[in-house]
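Q: What would this chain look like folded?
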Amino acid sequence: MGAGIGAGLVAVGAGMGIGRIGGSAAEAIARQPEASGKIQGAVILTAAFIEGVALFGVVVCLLIALA
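A: My prediction, written as structure tokens:
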């Protein structure tokens, strides 16, 4: 049961992180439209890192549940 709760927390945390990044990026682009290319690149890279950590967390929770 703990592994299921852990996997859910990982998914919620990743969703909140990516949502916060998206909101901050939209605000930054609104303030400095000429820097949108750099901001978008940083957002994509950071979102990929968050997704990787979230996937790792879910896999660890599944391994705990199946062990």
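The chain has two helices and no strands.
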